[in-house]
Design brief:
The chain has one domain: YaeB-like fold. The protein is built from three helices and four strands; from the N terminus they run αααββββ. A hairpin with a 4-residue loop joins β2 and β3. Strands 1-2-3-4 form a four-stranded antiparallel beta sheet.
């Protein structure tokens, strides 16, 4: 299924503050993998941001996980290729109760 209102997806600051942040106590591991596998760092984060937003808007592969009490949760996996390499990126989204657009919750390479 398509991610509901994927064309209005909100990345917030998850990419720069968490997934690509080598100083974040938890995100630093994700940052290391994004750099080593795809060559994506905070310096070129727009590559990842653009790919995530394209997948959110266009992919037919969103998997609904149900409501976690805060909103409806979805998982979306998509392939990403850069000059450095190729990988599957997993994104987790929530459409909070009372909202009608998806917010990025997590992002990592599987």
């Amino acid at each position: 299924m398509k991610l509901p209102n994927g064309h209005r997806a909100d990345l917030g600051t998850k990419i720069e503050d968490y997934a690509l942040n080598p100083r974040h106590w938890e995100g630093r591991h994700k940052a290391r993998v994004f750099d080593s596998v795809l060559g994506i760092t905070q310096a070129n984060r727009e590559v990842l941001c653009h790919a995530i937003l394209l997948a959110a808007e266009n992919s037919e592969e969103a998997e609904p996980l149900g409501n976690n009490g805060h909103g409806d949760v979805y998982v979306l996996r998509f392939p990403l290729e850069t000059p450095r390499g190729r990988a599957t990126v997993l994104t987790v989204w929530i459409i909070r109760n009372g909202e009608d657009f998806p917010r990025l919750v997590s992002c990592y390479i599987v």
